[in-house]
């Protein structure tokens, strides 16, 4: 039985993660940590069935833990991750602290990195692409919620070398849970309900360098993105539309076949047939990512549409998928 602990257990991702681990047949929860609610029962914080007593982050039993999940903010995660690794535990970090391979790029977007020496060791946790490396890792950087869908959609196409664009436009819409549990003026009910807004558009959102890093690696050449995130008046889910140009010989049917071949046997990638478009209803409360496409009107131009649950495949579910691979478990264990 794998003993798993959660730092930041009372955030939205931490809560989703606890739900998944509680039903996982190969896991027992070693601890659930929270600075704010230490000493309280989890069920007193959230209306749920979890009766774990929350512990302070500096009082967790790492000596009785096999893997720790970090649902904590950047900078804090890096320092906690070092303590976890020094204690002999494996680590899956859901923050941005270990996603970027170049420390200079990290510092451009997030400031000084607390433990840059660990960056070369971290494995980017996009399971369908980096499964072999994840299997031998002790430190995995869980992908961001926004990057996951577009990266899965574009990986087979860039690897095949059929995308002509040096700049790719990604238009993405997320449910409000993606903003985290701490409320702000922009995420209060009265601000979000019956509203639809863009934010951090163009080349300013912190997921931009992560997306570009992976797309460049897939393509073997520079790729720049224009990324436009939006806030949907729903609790969860991300729908992304991606605009690309390919050789006109690539028909919709041929592109779908490329996806199906690339993701054959993948339990959490759902490729929709030509003419079908992904929606949030395909994926909410599951660890699936749905992929779809449609011609954009001009020869060789396509719109790719992806959908996933930002709290599951975009966070906690993908983290458990990575943990399963790290420990040689059934990759689908605990996941829907």
How would the blueprint of this fold be written?
Blueprint (H helix, E strand, L loop, with lengths): L1 E6 L4 H12 L3 E7 L8 H4 L21 E4 L5 H11 L3 E4 L9 H8 L12 E2 L2 H9 L3 E3 L3 H16 L6 E8 L14 H4 L4 E2 L9 H12 L4 E8 L6 E8 L6 H11 L6 E3 L17 E7 L5 E8 L3 H15 L10
Parallel strand pairs: 1-2, 1-3, 3-4, 4-6, 5-6, 7-9, 11-12
Antiparallel strand pairs: 7-10, 8-9, 10-13, 12-13
Helix pairs in contact: 1-10, 5-10, 6-8
Would you mind describing this structure in some detail?
The protein has 336 residues and is an alpha/beta fold. It has ten helices and 13 strands. The protein has helices spanning 12-23, 42-45, 76-86, 103-110, 127-135, 145-160, 189-192, 208-219, 252-262, 312-326; strands at residues 2-7, 27-33, 67-70, 90-93, 123-124, 139-141, 167-174, 197-198, 224-231, 238-245, 269-271, 289-295, 301-308. The strands form two sheets. It has a seven-stranded mixed beta sheet with strand order 8-9-7-10-13-12-11. Strands 2-1-3-4-6-5 form a six-stranded parallel beta sheet, with helices on both faces. Helix 5 links the parallel strand 5 and strand 6. It starts with a strand and ends in a 10-residue tail after the last helix.
Low-confidence stretches: none
- Overall number of structural domains: 2
CATH class of the largest domain: Alpha Beta
Morphology call: globular
Total of DSSP H or I helical runs spanning 4+ residues: 10
User: Average pLDDT across residues?
Assistant: 94
- Rounded to an integer, what's the Rg over CA atoms? 19 Å
| Assigned CATH architecture of the largest domain | 2-Layer Sandwich
Q: Give the strand line-up of the largest sheet.
A: 8-9-7-10-13-12-11
CATH fold name of the largest domain: Dihydrodipicolinate Reductase, domain 2
Note the beta-strand portion: 15-25%
Secondary-structure element series = EHEHEHEHEHEHEHEHEEHEEEH
The CATH superfamily of the largest domain is known as Dihydrodipicolinate Reductase, domain 2
Helical content band: 25-40%
Structural class: alpha/beta
Oligomer: single chain
């Amino acid at each position: 039985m794998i003993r798993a602990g959660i730092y930041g257990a009372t955030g939205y991702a931490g809560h989703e993660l606890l739900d998944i681990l509680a039903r996982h047949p190969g896991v027992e929860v070693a601890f659930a940590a929270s600075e704010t609610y230490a000493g309280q029962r989890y069920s007193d914080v959230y209306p749920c069935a979890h009766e774990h007593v929350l512990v302070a982050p500096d009082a967790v039993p790492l000596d009785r833990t096999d893997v720790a999940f970090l649902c904590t903010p950047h900078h804090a995660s890096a320092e906690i991750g070092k303590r976890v690794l020094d204690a002999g535990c494996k680590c899956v970090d859901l923050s941005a602290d270990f996603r970027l391979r170049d420390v200079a790029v990290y510092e451009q977007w997030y400031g000084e990195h607390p433990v840059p020496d660990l960056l070369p060791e971290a494995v980017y946790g996009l399971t369908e692409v980096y499964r072999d490396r994840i299997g031998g890792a002790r430190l995995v950087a869980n992908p961001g919620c926004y990057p996951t869908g577009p990266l899965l959609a574009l990986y087979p196409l860039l690897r095949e070398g059929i995308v002509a664009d040096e700049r790719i436009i990604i238009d993405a819409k997320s449910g409000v849970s993606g903003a985290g549990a701490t409320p702000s003026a922009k995420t209060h009910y009265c601000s979000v309900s019956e509203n639809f807004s863009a934010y951090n558009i163009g080349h300013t959102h912190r997921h931009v360098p992560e997306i570009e890093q992976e797309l460049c690696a897939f393509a073997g050449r520079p790729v720049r993105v224009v990324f436009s995130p939006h806030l949907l008046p729903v609790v969860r889910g991300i729908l992304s539309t991606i605009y690309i140009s390919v050789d006109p010989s690539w028909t919709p049917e041929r592109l779908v076949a490329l996806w199906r071949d690339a993701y054959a046997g993948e339990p959490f990638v759902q490729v929709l047939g030509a003419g079908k478009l992904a929606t949030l209803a395909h994926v909410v409360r599951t660890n699936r990512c749905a992929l779809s496409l449609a011609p954009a009107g001009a020869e060789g131009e396509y719109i790719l549409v992806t959908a996933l649950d930002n709290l599951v495949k975009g966070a906690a579910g993908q983290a458990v998928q990575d943990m399963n691979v790290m420990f040689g478990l059934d990759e689908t264990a605990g996941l829907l």
